[in-house]
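Ticket 4471: requesting a sanity check on a complex prediction with manganese (II) ion. Repro inputs:
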Amino acid sequence: MYEKFREAGKIAGQALKIGAESVKEGVSYLEIAEKMEGYIKSKAKIAFPVNISVNNVAAHYTPACDDEKVFKEGDIVKIDVGAHIDGYIGDTALTVEVESNENSRLIECAGLALENAISVVKEGVEIGYIGKVIEDTILKCNFKPIKNLQGHSIERYRLHAGISIPNYFDGSKIKLKEGQVIAIEPFVTTGIGYVVDAGAGNIYQVIKKSSLTSELIKHFDGLPFAKRWLKNLYGGKADMKLAFLLKRRMVHQYNILVEARNGLVSQMEHTLLVEKDGCEILTTR
Ligand code: MN
Ligand code: MN
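Returned structure tokens:
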């Protein structure tokens, strides 16, 4: 099982590296998402659509099939990617600034917060303490953590498997256990420190098993999927099919999340294996 976690983590990390290196002024979000997803598909399975969230958008944006958005100079681009092998998921993210260094401190701060958090991860550590380390690091950089986005435990076919790893001190006394797989993902902002819904995005997930959703479950293993992936499955009927399932509450549509004061947002994420005296980074790149 851990070998599969390691392999999926490495593939996610490599996809992230490929994506980050390809982000340039004038390149489309769609091109990057498809390039990364193509790489993952050649080696493993996709755990969720590549998220490309820019500037004040913190998470849950994936391009539509006809998306025309392109990167602009100075954009703060968060790329978040997941791969799985047999349900064992690697989840990892980073932030790049397009042809500028104006906000390098914001980006470095997320990296530092993740690094400091990783340095205290081991069996027995309270997750509230991890949150404190992240929060202290970010406040010291004169930015704010986003409090309503969290890291999470990962289990087979479950990206968010029950335990949330806070990005601030929330007083939680839940202790990490040896052998647990967790994702830590500090979000740093120039804004007020929380995200709000900004309307429906292009990411969906089946929430009710039925004969009407069995095909989607089979294809995407019950994990999140993108509307643009349905072309192959349903052809021109994808929109109709999806609208039908949404209306019957068999499928959930994720909202795009933006910073509440439209602050800029950076993010870094690794998936980790908790060990007795430390942890192993599974999503190396
Ligand atoms: Mn992620
Ligand atoms: Mn995650």
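Notes from triage: DSSP finds seven helices and 15 strands in the chain. Leaving this open until the requester confirms.
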